[in-house]
Structure formats: structure tokens, C-alpha cells
Amino acid sequence: MTQVRVFPDLQHLSRAAAECVVSAARHGVRARGRFSVALAGGSTPRVLYRLLACTPYRAQMPWPSVHCFWTDERCVPPEHAKSNFRMAHTAWLSHVPLPPANIHRIVVEQRTPAQAAARYAQVLRAFFPVADGAWPAFDLILLGLGEDGHTAALFPRSPAVQETRRLVTPSVGDRPALPRITLTLPVLNHARQLLWLVAGRRKAAIVRLVLQGQASPETVPARRVRPVTGDACWFLDQAAARQLLAS
């Protein structure tokens, strides 16, 4: 099931997203004894991460049972300004009592992109007890949306979008064209819940194209994110939703 919710601005969107993360975490711990979440990079989730580090959300999270992963990472050191890990760690994870062993970052230093992808796949297989040919099921995956229709590091016409066997694969993104590591579409599509966070007028056209357009999934990878059994919820601010509201 896909749900679209529109909020006045990024702050309201982020507060609703924080409530969603807390609810998913508490449900995951009740149902399975732990909560697994894959974090998005980019600028939009930063407000959410900062909220989760503060009252009241900080006190509501079952921290000992929370496990944080990443949807994608640039091949840069963890202290680099372009690191998705650094953004989440600075805004959120360094301010909460999350056990260090529960932070499962994509380790890229001293490895080729292919080696880093293979190593992260091993991390996922060790955490999720899945049989060969099966896919891990994250409790929650946070996703953003690029103006070109990419999500995670799945870019238009990239071979990474075609990957159907591996859990993790190398990719290359533009602006700047840095090598990246990304979860593959089957992993995204097997999540129990997907939460899209999209804000800003510059995203309005691609939001309409993904949700209502007829563009080829080859040119708009986000259109290929379709949960197998889970739910997808789009949290949009009014600026990002303006072409939906006008249609």
C-alpha cells in the first residue's frame, strides 16, 4: 500500500517522520526483539535526525535494540563532508545512547567499491538470518528522491538499477561523480516499511513523475521501488507536492 501525506513545511514533515520512526522502532522491538533501519543521506533527513536526538523522541526510542544501517554511501572516509555516515552521526547518532555495535556503517576506506559492497553484503547476511536466494527485511528504510529520479545510489541508466541478485552493489553518482555503494532494488522492495522524505519546489516535477507520470523506470529509478509486501509512505512538504495538488 502506498500513502501520500503532505505537510506545510519540512519542519512539520520531519516531526511526523520522527513519530513514524519511533512507532516503527517500538513495534519492531515488540514483534521481533530489535529494530532495523536503513538511513538515507542527503540534506532532507538532517532535520529528522536532529529531532530524534532531542526531547521527546530521544526518550521514546528503545536504543539498546535499535540497529542503524545505510541505504548508500560515497566512497569517502567517514569524517569526510560528503559522507552519509558523518551526516547522520553528527546530527543524531552521536547524541543518543545507541550502542556502538548497533551502528553498521558501510566501510569504504582501504577497499575497492566492489570489495566494500561485498563486505557490506556480508554484514547484512550476518544480521538478517536469511536463506540463500532470500532477501533481508528491514523494519524501516528511509529514502530520498533526487531531481533526476534517483533514490539511494540508484541512478538513471546505471547498471546498479539492473542488479537483481546481489544485496549491495557499487554505483557512480553525479555532482560530484564519486563512486558509491548502494543497497539494491530487491533489498529496498522487501522492507516492511518505506518512508520517503521529499521537500522543496525543485522536487515537485519529479514527485509528480514518480507518483503519477508515465516515465520509463529505466530513466526514473525511483519508479522501480515497489514494496513486495510492505508499505510505502511518501512524506512531502507543500512545495514538493505542488504539482500533485494542482493535478
Q: Nutshell version of this structure?
A:
The chain is an alpha/beta fold and 247 residues long.
Walk me through what this model shows:
β8, α7 and β9 form a beta-alpha-beta unit. α7 crosses α8. The longest helix is centred in the first third of the chain and has 23 residues. The mean pLDDT is 94. This protein starts with a strand and ends with a helix. The protein has a single domain, classed as 3-Layer(aba) Sandwich (Rossmann fold). The protein has 8 helices and 9 strands. The chain is an alpha/beta fold and 247 residues long. The strands form 2 sheets. It has a 6-stranded parallel sheet with strand order 1-9-8-5-2-3.
Write the layout of secondary structure elements.
Elements: E1 2-7, H1 10-32, E2 35-39, H2 45-52, H3 57-60, E3 66-70, E4 72-74, H4 84-91, H5 113-127, E5 140-143, E6 168-172, E7 179-183, H6 185-189, E8 193-198, H7 204-212, E9 231-237, H8 238-246
Parallel strand pairs: 1-9, 2-3, 2-5, 5-8, 8-9
Antiparallel strand pairs: 4-7, 6-7
Helix pairs in contact: 1-2, 7-8
